[in-house]
Write a structure and sequence with these properties.
Distance between the termini: 19 Å
Largest sheet: 10 strands, mixed
Strand content: 15-25%
Amino acid sequence: MIIRIAVVAIALSVTVMICSNALIAGFKQEIRAKIFGFWGHIHITDTDINQSMLEAFPIKKDQDFYPHLDTIKGVSYRMQEPFMGKRVERTYTTKGGIRHIQVFAIKPGIIEAGKGEDQDIEGIILKGVGEDFDWAFMDQYIKRGKRLSLPEEEMSRDILISAQTAKRLQVDTGDTFIVHFVEKGEQLQRRFFVSGVYRTGLEEYDQKFALVDIRQIQRLLGWTKDQVSGFEVFIDDIDDLEAYTDYIYYEELPADLYAESIRRKLPEIFDWLDLQDINEVVILSLMVIVAIINMVTALMILILERTNMIGTLKALGTSNWGIRKVFLYYAAYIIVVGLFWGNLFGIGLCVLQDQFELIRLSEENYYLSTAPIALQALPILMINLGTLVITLVFLLLPSYLVSSISPVKAIRFK
């Protein structure tokens, strides 16, 4: 019975660790993908712009790096950086390249939400996009209608609003509504046609942002067609974020432009995501402790149950280490069996969740409608090796109980 309990304890601990790792990794991966998909990985803007991303400082669209920047497939370069009062040379080598670059423009406006007595004035931020906009991200979140129509010959009046905005305005695809603007002390109005309704699950962004033709923003701000708010850059590998941010800023941009990663622009969201790593460490540590306690208890019971056998072996001349190895081998066998069942159930539960989305979440609180799963081979391998090695190391202490058993007393032990 004690052996079965020990196997079950190991299996449960490994199952929880695998599921926790997959859930936390999936959660961070999905949230990052949504934020990067909406804003890009790196912003290129005027040097005077602040982190709010809402200030309108025009820069020229005609730049030496646009649009050829997305042809860069990898960089390796050296640069001098300050470190503890000295200049230290650092080498950057990226894993992937720059996938895409596109222009954008931002303009806040005012909408009249609701009707009748419930009517209220609320703010909205129009994000202007052009013909170079990558629709791969937004297409998967358009719930009704279609993407913006951006004809070359004329300015489009289409607008892509969120499901939250559609509910507040009580409009749907095919309807029209008016957005009010204030520019240089003058009140302006624009009527837009709702071409589609999207929902990303990022409630803070869904509530505030809508997509329109960038030419609408340029006209409202009095800009020319060659003026935009900035450029959004998308990269292949998130691990290259800081490397490409520095490379673009130091190697590609003129002195009047600035490159900043979205992680630096929105530090509070990424700090919150980093806190999930602490949760993962706590869960993994607790599960390892549970596994250690159960295995130590099981080994001590096994030793006490085999006291007569230990005494007989000692009387026959077997060394303490030789007897200890017998119990450690058996403990390792129990751990391996527990790891097998733990991996089977842990990976199995993750696959079931990934395929059938059994666990649902509140999208308002978690930004996701279902619990995301990201199974990764290396973390699973480390969980298995770590559990095996750490548990066996801690089992060395109770195995010393063998040394304290006297052969004479052990043979007479009942």
